[in-house]
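User: Reviewer 2 asked us to show a designed sequence for the structure in our supplementary figure. I'm pasting the structure tokens here. Could you produce the per-position amino acids so we can include them in the response letter?
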């Protein structure tokens, strides 16, 4: 069985044959310390700024009385989040794992707050993106832990190798699209379930057909995750929709992440839930601004 966990030991991430084999066989790889402590600290400060990214959050209902908060945007932009999305160790690694040119499909900040954060049902990302007329499952994502993520605070759970099962039918569950549980339960008898427990700064690179879910956050710790998604340039969606058509991605060296001091969020294209027909979400309401 191919190795699945790798560690970034320098500023550059060299994709070797073991990584490619693991991604092909298992549908994912884990890279420890993808972000340095300095990069993580700087990124966290930007994500937590009032009036910034988190203020564009939407609420996604889990069907069990809980919500998760998500900020979703279409284009990398000029700030540190954009430099990360365009960096060699993120976008360049995805290109090597996928075997060709990719473009930025979207990025999201998923905020599961302590004691209130909602769950995500079993699903494949391609269960959503198939509806966007991406004709082939040539997409992948990078899940970067902003906080330590473990079983206690609702870490990601994946079925190892489930990408080989192809796209599974999905149905609406709460505000989400969930995979057909009859088929998921069959696969659970065949495939290993992995609890993706990560330290802050670690990352999971995974294929769009990997089945995954996460529990509610019932702990006293928040669980924030930064998820960057990419589509192959050759897989340009047939019809325009709420995520971008092919847009050339200009990669940057990893050093640009720390060098970036731009705070301009213009041009990122934050998502309005009314534009996304594959979920049922709503704009977050600030009770401090609306209460009398």
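Assistant: Here is a per-position design you can include in the supplement:
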């Amino acid at each position: 069985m191919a190795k699945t966990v790798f560690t970034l030991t320098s500023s550059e991430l060299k994709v070797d044959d073991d990584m490619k084999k693991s991604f092909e066989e298992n549908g994912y790889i884990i890279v420890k310390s993808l972000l340095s402590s300095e990069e993580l600290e700087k990124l966290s400060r930007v994500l937590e700024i009032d009036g910034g990214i988190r203020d564009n959050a939407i609420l996604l209902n889990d069907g069990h009385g809980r919500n998760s908060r998500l900020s979703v945007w279409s284009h990398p932009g000029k700030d540190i989040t954009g430099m990360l999305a365009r960096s060699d160790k993120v976008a360049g690694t995805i290109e090597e794992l996928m075997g060709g040119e990719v473009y930025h499909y979207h990025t999201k900040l998923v905020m599961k707050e302590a004691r209130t954060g909602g769950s995500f049902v079993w699903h494949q990302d391609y269960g959503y993106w198939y509806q966007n007329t991406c004709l082939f499952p040539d997409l992948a994502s990078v899940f970067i832990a902003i906080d330590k993520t473990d079983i206690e605070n609702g870490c990601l759970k994946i079925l190892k190798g489930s990408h080989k099962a192809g796209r599974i039918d999905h149905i609406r569950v709460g505000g989400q699209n969930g995979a057909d549980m009859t088929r998921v339960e069959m696969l659970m008898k065949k495939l290993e379930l992995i609890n993706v427990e990560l330290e802050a700064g670690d990352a999971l690179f995974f294929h769009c057909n990997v089945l995954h879910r996460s529990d509610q956050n019932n702990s006293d710790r928040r669980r924030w995750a930064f998820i960057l998604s990419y589509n192959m340039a050759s897989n340009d969606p047939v019809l325009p929709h709420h995520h971008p058509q092919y847009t050339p991605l200009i990669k940057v060296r990893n050093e640009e992440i720390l060098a970036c001091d731009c705070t301009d969020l213009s041009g990122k294209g934050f998502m309005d839930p009314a534009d996304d027909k594959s979920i049922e979400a709503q704009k977050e309401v600030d009770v401090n601004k609306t209460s009398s």
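For the response letter, you might also mention the following. The CA atoms of residues 19 and 164 lie 17 Å apart. The two ends are 60 Å apart (CA to CA).
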